[in-house]
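Quick illustration, no need to memorize.
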Amino acid sequence: MSARRMRTQGLTEGAILAALVAVFAVATHYLPLVGIATALLCPLPLAVLVIRHGLRVAAVAGVAAGLVGAMLAGPLLGLAILVSFAPMGIVLGIGARRGWSATRVVLTAGVVAFVSTLLNYLGLMGGGRVSMAEMARTMERSVETSASLYARLGLSQAQIDSVSTQMREFARLLPYLLPAMLVFGALFAAWLNYEVGRRVLARIGYRLAPLPPVRTWRIPTAGIWLVPLAYLLLVLGLRPGAPALLQSAGWSLMLATQSAFTLQGILAGWMILGNLGFGRFAQVLAVIIVMTVPALGLVAMMLGILDSALRVRERWGLTQVSAREEDA
């Protein structure tokens, strides 16, 4: 097949798949329930283009899809295609084309999702003119509205005060916690897109490597040092005259480390219970209890830290659990 014919075929397929991306994006915009699925399918046509014809054809198709989406549903949808769906699809395609490891693809896709989220924020919020402080004030007003609604529903004043206090505390901390929340959201979006993309692409003959089994996921031992670092940044950030960026870094790092080690502790506890002979019902019940009792959440975090430092899962017989799961 000549190079000219290859280019012609690539452009033809690019035009078709660009239109498909635009259709998926419009469905995501106008069909709330169906849109959950189409949002995950939007990047895949561009991933196929990268695999079959390379990055250049996929990039041109991505721009074309953005223009078509803008004509069909407005500039915001076109922006979403250009900064969200197209980059995600290109990353998945490059990973499949070059044989990247699953971890590398997900982390790269997470960076892309994080950047696209920031760009979408700047586009939707008037170039960043809506500040975090304004968002906090908006949440404060929503707390007052919620309190009046609870009063009309018949809740006691003590219950209303308790809920309002928690919501106000969250509103105060939101500007500082937002960076960590965006990072977690980006990683979750990258993981979800990867898992959906891996299964869909496999059905049409393109393979993405699976992620390592969940039972093997572990934060490196060096990650334990992030916990005292978060507290140090927070203490320094709370001092009078300290820059707000320091306090934001402390809160965000604390949220990230506590959440990560708590999830790892829950995973370690799940496997320990399984090794001790408890059934799936007991494991699920234990997770629910840990998620609803704050004190047990702290215990789970400590177990996660111990798992990174001492490899608790291995000491409690990870090999036996793995063999049992394989037999099942």
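Confidence is low (pLDDT under 50) at residues 319-328.
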